[in-house]
Design brief:
Layout lengths: L2 H9 L8 H29 L7 H16 L4
Helix pairs in contact: 2-3
Length: 75
């Protein structure tokens, strides 16, 4: 099982159905997913701060995280 599939099983469905009672539950799942994404982005921001470090492996990890964060576009 892929990590994405595991997360989806743990969080539950987030797509709206048009049925109020189901969608209210799914909005809770959506908020859980958003909270998880925020936590993951905080982790990446923390690692990205290392992009100027002297140690090669630390700098590389920081650069990878920083480069990824720079690709994100919020619609």
């Amino acid at each position: 099982m892929e990590l994405h599939e595991i997360i989806n099983k743990l969080v539950g469905p987030i797509d709206p159905t048009g049925a109020h009672s189901i969608d209210e539950f799914r909005i809770g799942n959506l908020n859980t997913m958003i909270d998880l994404i925020e936590d993951l982005l905080c982790d990446l921001r923390r690692v990205a701060q290392n992009h100027n470090q002297n140690e090669a492996s630390v700098k590389k990890a920081g650069t990878v995280a920083k480069d990824y964060l720079n690709t994100l576009h919020v619609d």
